[in-house]
Specification:
This protein is an alpha+beta fold. The chain has one helix spanning 3-28, and strands at residues 33-42, 50-59, 64-73, 94-97, 102-111, 120-129, 134-144. The chain is globular.
C-alpha cells in the first residue's frame, strides 16, 4: 500500500473518531428537556377530595436527579415572580425509566374543597440532571378549577 493511502485512511479514522467523541460529549452536556406535559384536574364533590395529576416525559442525557413540581394559582406570585430558588424545597414527582435517556414522571396530589376555587392555576417544574444542569419553567402547564 502506498503511504498516501495509509495516511488518508488514518486521517479519516482520526477525524471520524474525534467527531464521534465530540458528539457524545455534547449529548452528555445537554440540560433536561420536558415534552408531552399534561395536567388533569378533578374538582372535589360531595364531601370527597378532588385531585391534580401532572405527567411529563423528560429527556436527560446525564440522567435525571429530580423533578420538582408546584401547582400555584394565578396571582400568587404577583408581587415577586416564582423563581428556581423557590422550587428547591417543593415536592418531587415520581419518575420511571421510559427509554434510553427518558423518564416518565407523574405528580399527584389531593385537592380539598377549600383549595379549589374558580381560578386559573399553573404547574411549575424544576428538572435537575445528574450532572447538575437544571431547567426551570414557571408555567409548564395551565388548568382551570371549575
Amino acid at each position: 500500500m502506498s503511504r498516501r493511502i495509509i495516511l488518508s485512511a488514518t486521517t479519516a479514522v482520526a477525524v471520524l473518531g474525534a467527531a464521534g467523541a465530540f458528539a457524545l460529549a455534547q449529548a452528555g452536556e445537554q440540560p433536561p428537556a420536558l415534552k408531552d406535559s399534561a395536567v388533569r384536574y378533578t374538582a372535589p364533590a360531595a364531601g370527597h377530595d378532588g385531585s391534580l395529576s401532572f405527567t411529563t416525559q423528560i429527556t436527560a442525557p446525564s440522567g435525571l436527579k429530580s423533578l420538582k413540581v408546584l401547582a400555584w394559582p394565578k396571582g400568587a406570585f404577583a408581587d415577586k415572580p416564582l423563581t428556581e430558588k423557590d422550587m428547591k424545597n417543593v415536592e418531587s414527582a415520581t419518575c420511571k425509566p421510559a427509554g434510553d435517556d427518558t423518564q416518565h414522571c407523574t405528580y399527584r396530589v389531593p385537592v380539598t374543597a377549600t383549595e379549589a376555587g374558580q381560578d386559573t392555576w399553573y404547574v411549575a417544574t424544576l428538572a435537575t440532571g445528574k450532572n447538575g444542569d437544571t431547567v426551570f419553567a414557571d408555567k409548564s402547564a395551565t388548568f382551570t378549577t371549575r
